[in-house]
Amino acid sequence: MVVEMSKGTVVSQNQNPVAQLQVKFKELENGFKEWLAKQSLPVEAAVVTATSAAQGAAIGAFMGTLTNDVSSAIPTPPNASLNPQAMASLQQAQALAGGPLVQARNFAVMTGVNAGISCVMKRIRGKEDVQSSMVAAFGSGAMFSLVSGMGGPNPVANVITSGLFFALIQGGIFKLGQKFSQPPTEDVFYAKTRGMLTNLGLQNYEKNFKKGLLTDSTLPLLTDSALRDVKIPPGPRLLILDHIQRDPELRRK
Q1: Residue 91 in contact with residue 150, Cβ under 8 Å?
Q2: 76 alpha carbon, distance to own chain's centre
Q3: Which of 253, 53, 225 is nearest to 147 (CA)?
Q4: What is the DSSP secondary structure assignment for residue 216, as one 8-state letter?
Q5: Which residues contact 132 (CB under 8 A, 6 or more apart)?
Q6: How distant, in Å, are the alpha carbons of 26, 38, 140, 171, 178 from that of 132?
Q7: Alpha-carbon distance 106 to 90, whole Å?
Q8: Is the Cα torsion angle 87, 93, 97, 102 positive or negative in sign?
């Protein structure tokens, strides 16, 4: 017993410390999510908004250290108070090239508002789709416009245009993410085939099945000649046909 415990201690000590931290962080994250899911909507929205704003502030502060020198080099036009367009351009430049505190504020507002609205929309609508994503982005863009002072002399129009711009960008990103995260349509027709070939260690022959259009619905009908036509060697053919005969799920038409 002592030996086993000592061995267990040695194994634990030999584990990668980075992997141990990752496992511990994942456990804490899952526990936090479980606790958060049990809370009321106001509490969940407030916590999500605060944590996301804190993350955004940290990112913004780091970005601000990179743009601090740029913002200090921006000259102030002598007639800015007399020229609204020049003042608007100056405010835009300062908002995009501000110091750590300015960027921390801007990023905190963007990420916090976006996460908070997304949380509320998901709880109310029961799903997370492009509409909810665009609504959250609109609110994020509108609030960013208010706190940063970006845009023209008309604050109302600027809030609306900034919100619409953020919403369109977020909607496009959401759609692109959906497109690239979904498997190709044809793969749906080869799910059982892929599982069978993987179990047999013959996954390299999946392309042969696809080339011959031997979909999952053809598995009960497969013959040696059909597999030979798609250039599968004799040994793998025997394994595939034997596996289909032994598996009632694959034999079912």
Answers
A1: yes
A2: 40
A3: 53
A4: G
A5: 118, 121, 122, 125
A6: 27, 22, 12, 9, 14
A7: 16
A8: positive
Q: Which parts of the chain fold into alpha helices (H)?
A: 2-14, 17-37, 41-72, 84-96, 100-125, 130-148, 155-181, 191-200, 206-211, 224-229, 234-246, 248-251
Which of the four pLDDT bands, split at 50, 70 and 90, describes residue 4? very low
pLDDT in tens, 64-88: 887 665 555 555 555 445 455 555 5
Least confident of 80-89, 185-194, 216-225: 80-89
CA–CA separation, 194 vs 248, rounded Å?
Answer: 17
* Cα 54 to Cα 104: distance, rounded to the nearest angstrom: 9
Q: At 12, which amino acid appears? A: S
Q: Within the chain, what is the greatest distance between any pair of CA atoms? A: 87
Are the CB atoms for 64 and 102 separated by under 8 Å? yes
- How far apart are alpha carbons 66 and 21 in whole angstroms? 30
- What are the structure tokens assigned to 209, written together? 């099945």
Sign, CA dihedral 221-226-232-233, equals positive
- Nearest alpha carbon to residue 189 among 213, 167, 163, 215: 215
Q: What is the DSSP letter of 153?
A: S
Alpha-carbon gap, residue 208 to 221, rounded angstroms: 16
